[in-house]
Please model this.
Amino acid sequence: MARRTKIYEGKAKILYEGPEPGTIVQYFKDDATAFNAEKKDVIEGKGVLNNRLSEFFMTGLNNIGVPTHFIRRLNMREQLVRACEIVPLEIIVRNYAAGSISKRLGLEEGTQLPRPIVEYCYKDDALGDPLVTEEHIAAFGWASQQDMDDILSLALRVNDFLSGVMLAVGIRLVDFKIEVGRVYDGDLMRLIVADEISPDSCRLWDIETGQKLDKDVFRRDLGNLTDAYSEVARRLGVMPKTVTKPTLIN
Model:
């Protein structure tokens, strides 16, 4: 096998040069991290599940006209994606209070928010991905006003799609984060959803029981993370009901 060129390695994924110009191979690791990587572990099968789940969500978005970087899944742990210039922001959409917004504003976890709230964090692990305002984003040139309008529109469309998909299988979409990338077609620039959408980047609660089916299971030591992610995959039909181990997914 030819040796591949690694472009970047993050906490949950490795990026390699793709087989065609303008493409990247995204490899999903089994590593789990929390609290800015202060808590770490390796969870067998997590990367396989996130690869399949992100494929499911990105394909669904592409099908309804929300552009993403996803091209196709290559194997159990890898997918081919379009290369893009990542806007240095994490875009967070909150439907219910949980995590940091509960601490900041004194809201009880699970409180339904008056409307979806979109927040922005500056992508910098050394700084702990601090919360920033649109004023910061404009002042430091991270994105233009037109970019911000387009990012807000993308984020809310993703929220509508994910909320509906999850509601149909008895899961409440509490919040999620996405990243956005710039792609260029000649002189034309457009924004697309990039990175991944998986239980690593969403808060997902069972509507009936409130059981957490996301990375909070790892953050808060609430049980087996693979079991939680497998349950999401099972409900969405991503993993056959007869399959019990995520490593068996083709």
Observations:
- The chain has two domains: 6-84+225-248, 85-206.
